Amino acid sequence: MFPLLWLLVAWLILMALFGILTLITVSLNFRYAPAGMTTYVTTLVFLLVVVGVFVLTIPYLVTVDWSQSINLFGDLGPRI
Fold it and tell me: Tens of pLDDT along 15-28?
């Protein structure tokens, strides 16, 4: 058994990594993509989708009881 809080911490670490990769993607898009309206529109759509997903997950994360524990393998004790 382990607490759900560990999953939240792992999720936050992965989201920080995703944020760094998003910054790299946007900077490379502006650096190497052809300058034009399409570059700016696709980058804006990408960023709006990323922010939208984060904003939509916040209400769910607030409702979870992070003090609960999860048991992945159930009761593996001896059976009689």
Answer: 999 999 999 999 99
